[in-house]
Design goal:
The chain is about 45% helix and about 15% strand. It is of the alpha/beta class and about 250 residues long. It has a single domain, classed as Aldolase class I (TIM Barrel, Alpha-Beta Barrel). Helix 10 links the parallel strand 7 and strand 8. The longest helix has 19 residues. Bound molecules: phosphoenolpyruvate (PEP).
């Protein structure tokens, strides 16, 4: 049985005052059925972990593949853990595009994160051109295989399917398209990791909002969502969480 997961990615948004949204979310949803994870900018991880007080999980949005050293501006997995993070998003399409992160880099980061006991939320997803060329399954299959280290389990790995063209655009794939990719990812995970592959949660991400959450959560092999814009406000993210709890 996979516990549903509502994950929020604040991206480069939020200052200390924004933590009021976290308090409001916890107050409105004191006992959610689903697991809740928020990934703020690195500057807020420690403060958010304090506000969250164990009621929701807090994660980073990236980490370095090395444990320490001369890497100005970067953050090691141990530093995230040290300030209260339990998870880290890796291989988000914005990191892949803006920072040239390859599958090999994502995999190395995932190994580093796992070594520190962080749950890795590994992102995969096709561009619009790749979907138009009918390369979606090939692309996400390769990203999944090459970005995920050996030894993935339901406890140490979450996979987020995020079509690049759906992120922050208000556009979403059809439910049949989401089901096709999630069913494919599930079969790939089971083929490689057996029973643990069946336990890895698969999140859909890309313009999830209160108005489309219920139908997305009813889709095959969707175990929750990775939410960008709609995770910034407690009311919106809380409505998505309620839809997930009801799914
Ligand atoms: C994301 O970037 O992970 C994301 C899903 O963004 P949005 O929900 O804003 O499309």
């Amino acid at each position: 049985m996979r516990r549903k997961l509502a994950a929020g990615n604040w991206k480069m948004n939020g200052v200390k005052a924004s933590l009021a949204e976290v308090s409001a979310l916890i107050a409105a949803h004191p006992n959610p059925k689903s697991e809740v994870l928020l990934c703020p900018p690195a500057t807020l991880v420690a403060a958010m972990a304090e506000v969250a007080a164990g009621k929701i999980a807090v994660g980073g949005q990236d980490c370095h593949m090395k444990a320490s050293g001369a890497h100005t501006g970067d953050i090691a997995a141990a530093m995230l853990r040290d300030c209260g993070a339990s998870h880290v998003i890796l291989g988000h399409s914005e990191r892949r595009a803006d920072h040239g992160e390859t599958n090999a880099i994502v995999r190395a980061k995932a190994e580093a994160a796992r070594a520190e006991g962080l749950v890795t939320v590994i992102c995969v997803g096709e561009t619009e051109a790749q979907r138009d060329a009918e390369e979606t399954l090939e692309v996400v299959g390769k990203q999944l295989f090459d970005s995920t280290p050996d030894g993935a389990t339901g406890a140490n790995t979450v996979i987020a399917y995020e079509p690049v063209w759906a992120i922050g655009t208000g556009r979403t794939p059809t439910l049949a398209q989401i089901a096709e990719v999630h069913d494919f990812l599930r079969s790939e995970l089971v083929a490689r990791f057996g029973a643990e592959g069946a336990a890895v949660r698969l999140l859909y991400g890309g313009s999830v909002k209160p108005s489309n959450a219920t139908e997305i959560f009813a889709t095959s092999n969707v175990d929750g969502a990775l939410v960008g814009g709609a995770s910034l406000k407690a009311a919106d993210f809380g409505a998505i969480l309620s839809a997930l709890d009801a799914a």
